Task: inverse folding
């Protein structure tokens, strides 16, 4: 999921993204959120927002590479 | 001198309008891109609270100056249900809604000055300012 276009991620959008990833996971779909801008990330951290259990990558290429390298979350948690 | 900008908040579109207006004004005042994002995020939280708890209200954007420093004051006002326990509302993790409970304390961290006035049954006024950092 490429979120490069989002210039603000507030608590509402964070909850929406987390819920979406959780729903997709129940359907057997692995998701990587890619492209959270540095300023947006800074605002999220100051707000106290986090995305536990959500995989993230710098950009779309990084997200796709991550999924190719580790298609399943189970591999992640085993590290 | 710079004048106030008022944005009605009664739909999702109002939240976007407030964010965009704040970015434009913040850029004119000399805030860097990161600060613009922090301000826009704070406004997003405040406007979302208005929409969620009071259904309608107003965001006022006011360029300010103090001791040679420029800043942007954001006033979020509504005539909604008000906040019963201000201390509790400012606690991380507390929410009466379905939120993550980080809105108000988080907004305070994004800005420099933060003042919250609320009366149950009357409404809520939050006044918050961020100052341009001197280089």
Result:
């Amino acid at each position: 999921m490429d979120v490069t276009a989002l210039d603000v991620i507030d608590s509402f959008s964070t909850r929406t993204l987390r819920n979406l990833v959780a729903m997709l996971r129940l359907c057997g779909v692995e998701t990587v959120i890619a492209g959270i801008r540095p300023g947006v990330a800074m605002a999220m951290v100051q707000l106290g927002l986090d995305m536990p259990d959500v995989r993230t990558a710098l950009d779309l290429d990084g997200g796709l590479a991550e999924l190719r390298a580790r298609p399943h979350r189970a591999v992640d948690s085993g590290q | 001198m710079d004048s106030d900008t008022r944005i009605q908040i009664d739909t999702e579109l109002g939240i976007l309008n407030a964010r965009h207006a704040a970015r434009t004004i913040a850029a004119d005042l000399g805030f860097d891109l990161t600060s613009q994002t922090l301000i826009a995020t704070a406004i997003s939280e405040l406007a979302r609270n208005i929409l969620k708890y009071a259904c309608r209200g107003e965001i006022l954007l006011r360029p300010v100056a103090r001791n040679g420093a420029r800043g942007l004051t954001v006033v979020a006002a509504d005539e909604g249900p008000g906040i019963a326990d201000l201390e509790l509302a400012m606690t991380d993790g507390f929410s009466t809604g379905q939120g993550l409970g980080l809105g108000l304390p988080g907004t305070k961290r994004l800005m420099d000055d933060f003042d919250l006035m609320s009366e149950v049954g009357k409404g809520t006024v939050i006044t918050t300012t961020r100052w341009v950092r001197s280089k």
Remarks:
- The longest strand of chain B covers residues 57-66.
- Residues 8 and 58 of chain B are 5 Å apart (CA to CA).
- Helices of chain B lie at 12-29, 33-54, 86-89, 103-110.
- The interface with chain A takes residues 19, 23, 33-34, 36-38, 40-41, 44-45, 48, 92, 98-100, 102-103, 105-107, 109-110 of chain B (CB under 8 Å).
